[in-house]
Amino acid sequence: MNEFSLLCRVLGSLFYRQPQDPVLAPVYDLIRGNKLAANWPLEQDELLARLAQNADAEALSADYNALFTGEDASVSPYRSAWVAADDALDVRQYLTARGMPLPEGAVDHFGMLLLAASWLEDQRLEDETEALTVFFADYLLPWCGTFLGKVEAHATTAFWRTMAMLTRDAIQAMWDDLQEEDEE
Question: Residues with Cβ < 8 Å from 161, sequence gap 6 or more?
């Protein structure tokens, strides 16, 4: 797994899965121990340290639920809430056309889109960036800044405010890398 895929997989999982999900326990252990920075491909040590300081399991879980789950969620994690409603089908069609196995139900969740970007990165051939560039340009970038801004504004914990900043910076760095690859 390369750095791009690692970023997408970790960030996508943190947004897609409930914090108490046992699958995430090792990731939260790394965060709480401030050990994620040792393997993090970007220079975000200050933000990672802030995550570690604010990784109280109960508080971040309660904030996650208030932010993203249920009808009373403060911030919808679904792309279809931010752009034209029929675009949710477009996401599924785009990923299916590239051979990605998808679960039933909505696939336009912010975390799922980052996980899809990881999958696209892992499947791409050398020197092939078009599918990933189109995915970012059409399905992630048009709304992720607004979404992450709302997360930052509505989060009650420093953890999720910091996650929004960390994710925004990471997405920008990945986009910059894709643009550089396209130019070459």
Answer: 151, 152, 155
Chain centroid offset of residue 56 CA: 20
Q: Scan for tokens 């477009």, then name that residue.
A: 90
Topology (CATH level 3) of domain 3-183 = TorD-like (1.10.3480)
pTM over the 0.85 mark: yes
The helix or strand, by DSSP H or E, that contains position 45, with its residue range, turns out to be helix 45-53
* Rounded CA Rg of the chain: 16
- The residues, ordered by sequence, that sit 6+ positions from 160 with a Cβ below 8 Å of its Cβ are 60, 63, 64, 67, 151, 152
The span from the CA of 83 to the CA of 75, in Å, is 14
How many CB atoms neighbour CB 23 within 10 A? 9
As averages over each run of 10 residues, the pLDDT of the chain (184 residues) reads: 88 97 96 91 94 95 96 93 73 91 90 95 80 93 96 97 97 93 76
